[in-house]
TrEMBL record:
<dbReference type="InterPro" id="IPR036909">
    <property type="entry name" value="Cyt_c-like_dom_sf"/>
</dbReference>
<dbReference type="InterPro" id="IPR009056">
    <property type="entry name" value="Cyt_c-like_dom"/>
</dbReference>
<feature type="domain" description="Cytochrome c">
    <location>
        <begin position="33"/>
        <end position="113"/>
    </location>
</feature>
<dbReference type="Pfam" id="PF13442">
    <property type="entry name" value="Cytochrome_CBB3"/>
</dbReference>
<keyword id="KW-0732">Signal</keyword>
<keyword id="KW-0349">Heme</keyword>
<dbReference type="GO" id="GO:0020037">
    <property type="term" value="F:heme binding"/>
</dbReference>
<dbReference type="GO" id="GO:0009055">
    <property type="term" value="F:electron transfer activity"/>
</dbReference>
<dbReference type="GO" id="GO:0046872">
    <property type="term" value="F:metal ion binding"/>
</dbReference>
<keyword id="KW-0408">Iron</keyword>
<keyword id="KW-0479">Metal-binding</keyword>
<feature type="signal peptide">
    <location>
        <begin position="1"/>
        <end position="21"/>
    </location>
</feature>
<protein>
    <submittedName>
        <fullName>Cytochrome c family protein</fullName>
    </submittedName>
</protein>
Length: 114
């Protein structure tokens, strides 16, 4: 059963990538100022443990941000950031993410994976 649900997840991810691809080549749009702030913040404060871009950075102990982008929407990401600010997440220590930081990070996440 597990392999079936993994397969379904992969198919969904592929479908959503295909849907986004019709908007033009990835990276062709300039980033919004908010997304740029989010990217700088991610590179400064998160890149030690997460692959924060689209590359296959091996330095990561946490999940890749491009994968999180597929698993969460803007609203659930905001909630996750609030929880992390309070409690951390598993092996991730609590890291303060302000409301503004969270908005910028969400804007940046939305540029990942098209
Ligand atoms: C000290 C290392 C470390 C740093 C720094 C770090 N993380 Fe994490 N993060 C982790 C690890 C390890 C996990 C996986 C733990 C878990 O959720 O079980 C994780 C999980 C997460 C999750 C939850 C993933 C999920 O599956 O729900 C989010 C969201 C997240 N990190 C965002 C961030 C953001 C945003 C930053 C920068 C502000 C950041 N992390 C900085 C180590 C780190």
């Amino acid at each position: 059963m597990r392999s079936i649900s993994i397969l379904a997840g992969t198919t969904l991810a592929a479908l959503s990538l295909a849907a986004c691809a019709s908007n033009g080549p990835p990276g062709s749009d300039p980033m919004s100022p908010s997304a740029e702030r989010g990217q700088r913040l991610a590179e400064r404060r998160c890149a030690g443990c997460h692959a924060v871009g689209l590359d296959e950075s091996p330095a990561a102990s946490g999940p890749r941000f491009s994968d999180l982008h597929l698993r969460y929407n803007a609203l659930s990401l905001q909630k996750r950031f609030a929880e992390i600010t309070e409690h951390g997440s598993g092996e991730m220590p609590p890291i303060h993410i302000s409301r503004q930081d969270a908005e910028d990070l969400v804007a940046y996440f939305e540029t990942l994976g098209g």
